[in-house]
Amino acid sequence: MTTTAPAPAALSTADQLADALATPRTVWPGGRPDGGRSWPQSLAGGASGVALLHIERARTGRGDWDTAHTWLATAVHGEVSAAANANLYFGAPALAYITHRAASASSRYRRVLERLDKATLTVTRARLAEAHLRIDRAERPPMEEFDLIQGLSGLGAYHLSRDPGREITRDVLSYLVRLTEPMPDRAGLPPWWMNVGPTGAPHADYPHGHGNFGLAHGIGSALSVLSLALLRDLAVPGMVDAIERICAWTDRWRQGDVSDPWWPGLISLQQAADGHVHPDLRPRPSWCYGASGTARAQQLAGLALRDPARVRAAENAILATLRDPLQLGKLPEIGLCHGMAGLLHAAWRMATELGNAEIAAELPRLTSRLIAALHQDNYDPELLDGAAGAALALHTLSTGGAPAPHWDTFLALA
Asked: Which stretch of DSSP H or E encloses residue 334?
């Protein structure tokens, strides 16, 4: 689908950002970061994330494979983590994720992919066993069990992209189905309700935990992964029921009206008991908790369930956001997670899914806002909240992106 976005300016800006991120020694003059989310194996903030930008550019013919290889080598340098806390965003699964994209266009990476994939299989099986034991005990799930960034929704997204027909892919989908199955609860809370705060740890402000709608850390990630699987004709027993259970809960908490629906980012037990969310608690339209993510998840669910009303509600949600200066003003950041790049890319993905000309017509204004912001300051190089992610969004808007496997699978958008 062709949009009316300012593609030349977007492509030029993406090229400039990629050029600035061409070599690790210029990005990190003091050497490779060795801690935090800037660790090389981190998809969010390390070399893995920057490598993904250059892999996508090479796959579309806009960049060169030598640059992509340099970043891949930097990402995999040293001991690769396949510990119990490895996930889509860190360690062997993150490296398998980016290497899968490289291997789809170059046989050079198939052997290393096989090793990384084997390690990811081991991590996934261990995580599944732990999760099923937790459900057997009828305990509430920790955030890191099922969310996209740390948990099994993220690992499921990888396996669905890597090889939908494998047993491990079906095993993760079956777990996600089981995650949604009712469990004894006098308060009537959904089975994915967590007994922790939004940080994933106990918090005084959330003494009884919270229900999370987001794609990063909430049930939105499971909804997207299950819906994507169903759209690819990969069904496991109970999958449709699971999607419908999640949708029933999100429908219960949908706010606004037909022309401007929105969903909370999360709710507390008190809000659940009151049955009310104050309009002031509308989340900003970011990918992680806001309309950038939740609207796309609803669109995917609507397509999977063949529910045109749900699809239209999702499209109305993203349209209302794109047309509302107050909502756009809540996203001054540039990034995929918290900023304009995430909204731009999610809206582009929604527009291209069904050829929605109304959404496409709104993209040029947001594109211009993002480009202007990028020219005003120097930003961190990282993928999730920095220049690499913004460059990917602008590159994809301009080129249409490479064919599957899609780079935005790690955002549960495709």
From this structure: none
